[in-house]
């Protein structure tokens, strides 16, 4: 299984960083110009972007990538999977949160990926790693 991992320290408390990264709309800032929209709410009215929610990603009206939140442990961990994508056999995203101090949070983002065409996985992961590093740098300036 191919995977990548990105670590980024945020100068903010863990609850603030978790709140930021647990909202689908945040990824519009992090991964611009890619657009992200929630297309299915979770069953928890207090947390519409929680477990069971689905987001679409892409450009304009073309958003072929769908991700579903499969685990959400407040201030600790978020997991999601790509759903209904014929090019991807396995995709698991894991975002972990660790309070390093009252105003410092370490975020560890791990992605496992297995594309249908094996040689494609490493290429996709390299692009994702670059995008996540850039996106996290942008977000770290907003908290």
Automatic annotation (TrEMBL):
It comes from the Bacteria. InterPro entries: Polyketide_cyclase/dehydratase (IPR019587), START-like_dom_sf (IPR023393). This is Polyketide cyclase / dehydrase and lipid transport. The lineage of its organism: Bacteria, Pseudomonadati, Pseudomonadota, Gammaproteobacteria, Moraxellales.
């Amino acid at each position: 299984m191919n995977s990548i991992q990105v670590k980024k320290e945020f100068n903010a408390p863990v609850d603030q960083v978790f709140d930021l990264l647990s909202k689908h709309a945040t990824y519009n800032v992090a991964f611009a110009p890619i657009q992200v929209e929630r297309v299915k709410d979770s069953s928890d009215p207090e947390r519409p972007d929680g477990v069971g929610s689905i987001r679409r990603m892409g450009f304009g009206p073309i958003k072929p990538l769908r991700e579903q939140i499969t685990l959400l442990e407040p201030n600790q961990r978020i997991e999601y999977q790509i759903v209904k994508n014929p090019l991807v056999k396995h995709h698991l995203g894991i975002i972990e949160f660790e309070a390093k101090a009252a105003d410092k949070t370490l975020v560890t983002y791990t992605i496992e990926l297995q594309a249908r065409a094996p040689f494609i996985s490493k290429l996709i992961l390299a692009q994702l790693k670059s995008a996540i590093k850039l996106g996290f740098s942008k977000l770290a300036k907003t908290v």
